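Consider this pair:
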Amino acid sequence: MTELKNIKSKTVWSAFSLFFQSGYSAFLGLVANLVLTIILSPKIFGIYITLLSMISFLNYFSDIGLAASLIQKKELAEEDIKSTFTTQQILIISLITIGFVFGPFVKKFYQLPTDGLYLYWALLISFFISSLKTIPSVFLERQIKYQKIVFVQVMESTVFYLAIIIFALTGFGLRSFIYSVLLRAVTGLVLIYIISPWMPKLGISKRNLKELLSFGIPFQASSFLALFKDDLIILFLGKVVGFEGVGYIGWAKKWAETPIRIVMDNVTKVLFPVVSRLQDNKAKVGQVIEKILYYQTAILAPTLLIAIFIMPKLVYVIPKYTKWAPALPLFYIFVASSFLVTYLAPFINFFNALGKVKISFSFMLIWTVIVWILTPIFTKLFGLYGFPIVHLIISSTFGFVVIVAKKIIPFNFFKPISIFITSIFPMALAMYIINSRLSSSLIISLFSVSLTGGLVYIIFLKYIFKLDIAKNINYLLNRQ
C-alpha cells in the first residue's frame, strides 16, 4: 500500500511538472512562432518542417526500442545499461554517416538552398548529441522523477526559443534554426549529466541484449510505423504539394495539436512507467485508465472547441498573420482529428506498458497502410485537404482500440467522459451566438467568445451535473 501511494504521489507531481514544462515551452513556442511566421515565409517554415521530419525518421532507428526496454523492465543489471548504450551509439554513428553521405542528394532532391543543407547537417549533429542523454534520462524515468527531466527540457526550450527569436529578428533567416538546434542540444546534454550523473561504459552482453530486444524490437517497430505514418508522409507532401503547401499543413497541424501535446503527451509519458510498475494489478490499471480519460476530456474538450472559434480571429488580429488564412480550413479538420486522437494514442502506450507490443504494432501497421494508400489518392483529389482528411479518418478508428483495451483490462469508457462531452454542446451554442452577434473589435470579440464559452462549460458541470470542481483539483494536488 505504501508503494502504491508513493507511485501515485510521484505520478501526480511528474504529470504536473510535465504540464508546467509544456505550458512554459508552449508560451515560448507561441512567441517564437509568431515571430517566425511573421518574419519568415511559409516556404522557409516548410523547409524546416520537412528536414525535421527527416531527422525524426533517423531517430526511430537510433536504439531499436532498447531505452523503452530499460524503462519497462522490472530490474536492471549493469550489462543491460552498457549493452543498450553501446548498441545505440553504433546505430547512431552509422545513421549519421549515411545522413552526411546522402546530404548532396537531399539538397538536390528538395532543391534546398545552401543554408537548408547546413540546417540538415546541424540537425544530424544535434541528433548525435541528444542520443548521449538517453541513459541518464532512463534512470530518472524509471524512478518517475520527471520533474528533473522537465528542468532540462525547460532550459533547452528557453535556449532554443530565445536564440531563434534573436537570430530571426537580426536577419539570419533559415540560419536561425541552425544555431538554435545546436545550442539546444549542447545545453540539454550538459544539464542531464549534472542532474543524473553516469559514466558511459562500452560493452555488449549477448544474453542481456537478446532479452532487451525481445521487447524493444516490436516496440520500436510500432514506433517506426508511427513515424512512417506521420513524418515520412510529410516528406512525400513536400515533393507533391511543395514547401508552401507543407507550410500551411504544418501550421494547421501544429496549432490544432498544441493542446493535446501539452495534456495528452505528458499524461501518456507518465502512464508508461506507472502502468509498467502496476501491470500485475488489473484493478488499479483500470482505475488509472478511467482517471486519464476523465481529466483529459475535462481539459481538452472545451480547449479544442475554443480554439475553433478564436483561431480565425487571431489570424486577423496578429500583424502580418493573414497569410495563414488559407490554412484555416485545414486547421478545423486537424482539431476534429486531435480530439479523437485523445481516445486513441494513450491506449497504445497502455499496451506497450503491459508488454502487449504486438497489439500496438498491429494497429500501427493498419493505420500506416491506410495513410499511404489514401494520402496520394486524396491529395490528388482534394489537394491540401487530402492529408488532413486521411488524418481524421485514422483518428476515427479509436473505437476499435478501446474495444481491444477493454478485453485486456476492465474499465468504463463512457462514464468518465460523458458529462464533459455533453457540456461542450451548450458551450458551442453560446459561443456561436456571441460570435455571430458581437460586432465590436476583433480583440474584444476574441475575449468575449472565449470567456462566454468557458463560463457556460463550468456552469453546466457545476449546476447541471453537480460536479465539484474545487474537490477535483484538491484530489489531484493532495494525492499522496
User: Anything to note?
Assistant: The CA atoms of residues 126 and 185 lie 5 Å apart. The first helix runs from residue 2 to 39. The two ends are 11 Å apart (CA to CA). The mean pLDDT is 81.
